[in-house]
Amino acid sequence: MNTPICRTPTAGPSRRSVLRQAASLALFGPALTALGSTSAAAATTQASSSLDFSGITLKVLCNTPHLPIYTGFLAPAWQQSTGGTLLATAVNYTQLEDAIIQDVQSGTGEYDCFDYYYYLLGSIAQAGALVDLTEWIATQRDLDTRDFLESRYDPYTAYRHRRYGLPYDGDQHLIFYNQELLDTYGLKPPTTWDEYDAVAKTITEGSGGAYYGAVVTGQPDPIVLGPAFINRLVGYGGDLLDRSGRPTLTTDAALAAAQHLIDIAPYALPTPTATGLGTATTAFMAGQAALVETWADEAHRFADPTLSKIVGKWGATALPLGGGNTRRRTPLDGGYGLGVSAASKNRDAALEFIKWVTGTDEMLLETTQKDSAIDPNRTSVLHSTAYAAYVANTPVTIDLIRAGLDGTPMVWPNGPADPDNLQRLVDQLALAIEGKQSAATALQNAQTTWTS
Q1: What is the CATH number of domain 173-331+417-449?
Q2: How sure is the predictor about 43, in pLDDT bands with cuts at 50, 70 and 90?
Q3: Report field, pTM of the whole predicted structure over 0.85
Q4: How far are the Cα atoms of 216, 236, 438 from residue 259, in angstroms, in the given order?
Q5: Which of 400, 387, 393, 401 is nearest to 25 (CA)?
Q6: Residue 16 pLDDT grade (very low, low, confident, very high; cuts 50, 70, 90)
Q7: Fold for domain 17-170+334-410?
Q8: CA–CA distance, 16 with 410 (Å, rounded to integer)
């Protein structure tokens, strides 16, 4: 986990006054200073202030869920604003790290910008795939870094006291529940993991397997089984690492979290270790399951009658607590930054693009598009009346969203070795869920093989 680093001073006005009014801007915190000395890979050029990039084609590599916002909204908006062309290519989340590093290290240099999972930051920065933006950020007064959500800015962009990106998509998990199924069995949305267990068991057993009380995303990938474990770990009051960066996978909280995954498996949609993100959301939208943990932006899919059979029959609540823990924290499950490829041949345009696309005006538009997969990265957007009105189209309350994004997060480690550390952890947990070893053995194996 990185040491928090300082911010640049506050900025001037945003580009579109009409959106500025809609956003109801609210800036927080003192003005802070920028970081230290530059490095050889640092961005030293100044992006064009005229936003005229006619004849220049920018290429972005992103994760699959982000592709529609690039192709359907950002590409035409970028062309209209700058005259430039924006092309996006998507890869599966399991391929994102390798695709980014290979593009730069192979010399191919196809892409100008990378839309990366934040827990991959140390790995791709250490591989030399990203431009060091530290000094460039310090010169961009209109970037308004004070407006970036404090809970996201450092985790998404900082590695070893340098910045390699700008925060983009501020993800968080919620518990979504099928109100119709809960009402049928006289149940309420769970606030603790024990209540979650009771809901799952009651519905699975009571329906004779026609419905399942829960969906557990247990596919052994860090972005799938990782959140399922970490949601429980944080709920029981635990952490992945201590303040010195050492793993804490053998604590009582970690053991309770792993054991919960084992104990809930018989009452979950079969088969947890084969259940990925798509399977989980499809089952919930089909009305097949009562509870699912997933990203907040999925709410708009659940409320879409062309996709969902449970429109008007579901709700959302915060992740449960457990084991006597009363401290609520947001597990930083997923989330993205935008960086510039070290191999980009269009660095000026790429720098201007990541500033534009993460700015208040564009983010307000992106986060309120139909079925958008983008969540707020800025305080001004999160607390805007326009975003609140967009969220009001679903049963999710704006206060629930704001509490998670404004709160104190449990940040996943994002050092160079951590993608592999997390993979080994979920591999061990999957074996435990399948009954091939105990929770204690799984966690001890993951603890022993964790490297820094």
Answers
A1: 3.40.190.10
A2: low
A3: yes
A4: 13, 12, 8
A5: 387
A6: very low
A7: D-Maltodextrin-Binding Protein; domain 2 (3.40.190)
A8: 35
